Amino acid sequence: MTRQPDSLLSLTDFNGAPLADDLLWKSFRGLMERHGYVFMCNVPDTFDPVAFCKRLGDFVPQYTGVLVGDVTPEPGMEEFYHAGNTKPLYPHSEGYDFEGLPPRYLALWCERPNTGAGGETTLADARAWSETLGEADRAYLCERVFAWETTDAMRHLGLDLHPEHPVLEEHPDALIVRYSFNNLVRGDDEDIVGPLLADAREYFERHHVAVQYERRDMLVFDNWRMLHARNAFTDTGRHLRRIQIAHRPTP
Ligand SMILES: [Fe+2]
């Protein structure tokens, strides 16, 4: 079942004026803490998404090295499992293929919405999923270190990564959930980890919210906590921009 986002922040107030900066931050922090994501709408022309993201932390380069990426259909990538086409993306966390910490936040904002059906970003709370696990399963996902690999599309672009991580990592500041149904190497653990990965995917199907963008809308989510995916679409003019933001350690 698909639900509409319940963590909405209007960037203009009841008079249509831009929300005061301190109110914006207080509301953003509160919604992020509670829901793990914030969908920002009614965005005034004066709002600068890059400057907003800078206040959340340092930017993590995209695979291509750029700090502010584009998500739009790219020629030659139609046949791959890849954000740069119109196909669906399955639930995953960002940066499970990084050697170190995955980005803490991901920001996506809309330069040009798609016409027609589809194109929603979907999100569900993987920390909440982890809390549904029995003690033995949770301990297994914290202790067992798996090999992970990049997607075929990334290998096609010349990046072949093989980091090793558990699915659940107890970082001092927050639980980190890494997840990919396809790109975790299951090996001899298929019988144990296969059903757990399927359980997470079913949890996502039952609990996700779906975000459809208007121009300038911005979604920010806690990538250590939330899984995200995308519905397929047909309009090749759809254009989002994308920033990955590093974790800022608690002082
Ligand atoms: Fe992603």
From TrEMBL:
UniProt keywords, alphabetically: Antibiotic biosynthesis, Iron, Oxidoreductase
Domain TauD/TfdA-like: start-end pairs: 19-243
Gene3D superfamilies: Clavaminate synthase-like
SUPFAM superfamilies: Clavaminate synthase-like
Domain of life: Bacteria
Cofactor: Fe(2+)
InterPro entries: AlphaKG_dependent_hydroxylases, TauD-like_sf, TauD/TfdA-like
Pfam families referenced in this protein's UniProt entry, alphabetically: TauD (PF02668)
Residue spans crossing the bilayer: none
UniProt keyword annotation of Iron present: yes
Protein name (database record): TauD/TfdA-like domain-containing protein
Annotated source species: Streptomyces rameus
